[in-house]
């Protein structure tokens, strides 16, 4: 590795999870500078996501917690990154309903401790390095609450109205990030993104859960009436947006990121079934739609999310490039072609989660 690759090092947190791993893989391929990847390896963190980087000196993996100030300070001191990109979080709404403790621990307290470690490091940097330093916090559209059917999409000015323990904990972290900028001038950037899908997503989330369950002939558990709406974005488009904000975003500002792609859940599940019917002509489970099962709703289930991403388009020139139809097909093919990855994540721990979340939801 040459010295310029080292001097443009970034520190990524949560880079063994779904979006973080996609971001790290793309960063090394497209930008090529060193990535220090700090991840606690919770149930959602998976080193198999980063297999292709084995032996690559540009990727330094460190198992650890964003809430461990000594470890974070040491990494900042040793590697002197010019940017920190914070993906680390507990990210699944249903888990936050069954137990919110870890969400407060990592998303609120962990972010606080990370911010403090980064602030101390940043304040001690020479003037020449301080100006170019960035702390990018990856957040969610769920902090804005739920929309009615004809309300306009969330802009950056929308009030915060989080409804689940998950979104409340992410809202808390966003407020801390904002305060560290206003109080100390830490050069932060916050992104609030809509629902992602794509390769390496842990199959507790709607799209991979439905793909794998349908392939395996299991029921497809649609919550409530299936008419809740999400705004879907292919994960590589999200990663490109984050690189754009890091590169050209204005410190202290917030950028909404979305796919301009609202779909009702039932529509998404049906699209998955149709694609699998086509890709698996010999499957005994065709037509896969037969497997759809309506189950008890998620408590406090937000009805609709939609992101207005006109700011990032207008000011920074980013917009999504992958259509939902292309992205979904690519995702389904990826799961079909990665049997080993699938069997690795559908282990004992995963089966316990499926039992805990779905056993009580009578069809
Ligand atoms: P994920 O659950 O797949 O991955 C989270 C990663 O963080 C895992 O690798 C986990 O081991 C790690 N982690 C958890 N606690 C940690 C801690 N205390 N210290 C260090 N590492 C820790 O999540 P994801 O879907 O990739 O989401 C990444 C980020 O993007 C999250 O902050 C999430 O809120 C946000 N986000 C996700 C989506 C989405 O649709 N998935 C959309 C918008 C925003
Ligand atoms: O909007 C961004 C958010 O999107 C991220 O911040 C979260 O980290 C991410 O998990 C996601 O949250 P959702 O709750 O929208 O995603 P999930 O995949 O859990 O559910 C999507 C929709 O599908 C939601 O309306 C609930 C429904 N659903 C989900 C599951 C797991 C079902 O109908 N059945 C299911 O089994």
Explain how this protein is built:
This protein is α/β, with parallel strands linked by helices and 363 residues long. It has a domain at 10-200 and 232-260 and 304-322: Rossmann fold (3-Layer(aba) Sandwich). Helix content is 44%, strand content 15%. It contains 14 helices and twelve strands. The protein has helices at 3-7, 18-30, 69-79, 93-98, 101-123, 127-130, 165-184, 206-215, 235-248, 265-279, 310-316, 324-337, 339-345, 348-358, and strands spanning 10-13, 35-39, 59-63, 83-86, 134-140, 188-193, 195-197, 220-223, 229-234, 254-257, 262-264, 292-295. The strands form three sheets. A seven-stranded parallel beta sheet has the order 3-2-1-4-5-6-10, sandwiched between helices. It has a three-stranded mixed beta sheet with strand order 7-9-11. It has a two-stranded parallel sheet with strand order 8-12. Helix 2 crosses helix 9 (235-248). The longest helix has 23 residues, at 101-123. It is globular. The N and C termini lie far apart (56 Å). The relative contact order is 0.13. The model has no long low-confidence stretch (mean pLDDT 97). It binds nicotinamide-adenine-dinucleotide and 2'deoxy-thymidine-5'-diphospho-alpha-D-glucose. Nicotinamide-adenine-dinucleotide binds at residues 13-14, 16-20, 38-42, 44-45, 65-67, 87-89, 91, 106, 110, 138, 140, 170, 193, 195-196, 202.
Distance between the termini: 56 Å
Question: How can the largest sheet be summarized?
Answer: 7 strands, parallel
Radius of gyration from CA coordinates:
20 Å
The total count of strands amounts to: 12
CATH H level of the domain at 10-200 and 232-260 and 304-322: which superfamily? NAD(P)-binding Rossmann-like Domain
Point out poorly predicted stretches: none
């Amino acid at each position: 590795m040459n010295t310029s690759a080292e001097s443009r090092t970034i520190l990524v947190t949560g880079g063994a999870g779904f979006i973080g791993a996609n971001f790290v893989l793309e960063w090394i391929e497209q930008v090529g500078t060193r990535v220090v990847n700090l991840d606690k390896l919770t149930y959602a963190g998976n080193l198999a996501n980063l297999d292709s980087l084995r032996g690559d000196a540009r990727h330094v993996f460190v198992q650890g917690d964003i809430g461990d100030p000594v470890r974070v300070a040491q990494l900042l001191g040793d590697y002197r990154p010019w940017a920190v990109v914070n993906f680390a979080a507990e990210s699944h709404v249903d888990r936050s309903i069954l137990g919110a403790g870890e969400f407060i621990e990592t998303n609120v307290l962990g972010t606080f401790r990370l911010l403090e470690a980064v602030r101390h490091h940043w304040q001690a940097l020479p003037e020449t390095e301080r100006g170019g330093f960035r702390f990018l916090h990856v957040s969610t559209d769920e902090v804005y609450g739920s929309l009615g059917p004809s309300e306009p999409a969330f802009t950056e000015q929308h009030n915060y109205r989080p409804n689940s323990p998950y979104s409340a904990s992410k809202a808390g972290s966003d407020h801390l990030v904002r305060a560290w900028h206003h109080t100390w001038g830490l050069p932060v950037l916050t992104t609030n993104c809509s629902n992602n899908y794509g390769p390496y997503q842990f199959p507790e989330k709607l799209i991979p859960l439905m793909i794998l369950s349908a392939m395996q002939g299991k029921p497809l558990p649609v919550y409530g009436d299936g008419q809740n709406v999400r705004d879907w974005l292919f994960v590589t488009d999200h990663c490109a947006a984050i690189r754009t904000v890091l590169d050209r975003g204005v410190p202290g500002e917030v950028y909404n990121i979305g796919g301009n792609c609202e779909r009702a859940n039932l529509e998404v599940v049906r699209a998955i079934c149709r694609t699998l019917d086509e890709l698996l002509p010999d499957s005994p489970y065709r037509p896969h739609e037969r497997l759809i099962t309506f189950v008890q709703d998620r408590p406090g289930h937000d009805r609709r999310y939609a992101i207005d991403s006109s700011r990032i388009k207008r000011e920074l020139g980013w917009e999504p490039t992958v259509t939902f139809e292309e992205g979904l097909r690519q995702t389904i093919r990826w799961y079909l072609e990665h049997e080993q990855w699938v069997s690795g994540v559908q282990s004992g721990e995963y089966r316990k989660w499926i039992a805990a979340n779905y056993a009580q939801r009578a069809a």
